[in-house]
Amino acid sequence: MAALIAADQLSKAWIERTIPLGSGYAPIPALDPYFMLVHWGNTGTAFGLLQGFGGLFAMLALIVIIVVLALAHQLPLEHWGVRFSIGLVLSGAIGNLIDRVRLGHVTDFLLFQAPIGERMYQWPAFNVADSSIVVGVILLGLLLLRLEHAGATAEA
Fold first, then answer.
1. pTM for this model (two decimals)
2. Segment 47-65, tens digit of pLDDT
3. N or C, which end of the chain is more exposed by having fewer CB within 10 Å?
4. What is the pLDDT of residue 99?
5. DSSP 64-131
6. Do residues 121 and 113 touch, judged by C-beta distance below 8 A?
7. CA 36, CA 59: separation in Å to the nearest integer?
8. Are 4 and 95 in contact (CB under 8 A)?
9. 32 is catalytic
């Protein structure tokens, strides 16, 4: 968790120092306009939804972090994958919470776009913490489905 939080905070600090807020550039010209580094402040939730509720999301994140940490120790040690997944989610939540407390918004900086027909479609900008949360939730869901399937098979 510490390594992911550090990677998240260091990458955001680098973006904040090198790219003015609200702007961006293509670090690899051959990938322009498909991939850009940007410096955007997100006061909402994932995908830029519910802008302006940063304080509420900071409180919710803190509550979720405390509850998950309180319950995580109850997981059996053999469920290392579940523990790892929870660690990914927690590290992402902590990384974004640090931003909300420090800046009042989350720094997003990875932007992917794709031309479809004559229009350019843009995936919402994200960061290392967001990636950690998404990967952790998907992995946790897959592992829990697998554990549930194994339990149902054992009962049959």
1. 0.86
2. 666 787 778 888 888 898 8
3. C
4. 95
5. HHHHHHHHHTTS-TT-HHHHHHHHHHHHHHHHHHHHHHHHSSEEEEEEEEEEETTEEEEPPPB-HHHH
6. yes
7. 31
8. yes
9. no
Q: Which of 85, 101, 99, 95 is nearest to 134 (CA)?
A: 85
- The first and second tokens of residue 82, run together, are 């579940």
Say if residues 53 and 100 touch (Cβ distance below 8 Å).
no
Single-letter residue type at 65: I
Query: Strands of 119-122's sheet, edge to edge?
Result: 24-25, 35-42, 106-116, 119-122
8 is catalytic: no
Cα–Cα distance, 57 to 60 (Å, whole number): 5
Contacts for 38 with CB less than 8 Å, ≥ 6 apart: 19, 23, 24, 108, 109, 110, 111, 125
Contacts of residue 140, defined as CB under 8 A and 6 or more positions apart, other chains included, come to 82, 85, 86, 89
Handedness of CA 31, 41, 108, 53 (dihedral sign): negative
Residue closest to 17 by CA, chosen among 50, 34, 32, 39: 39
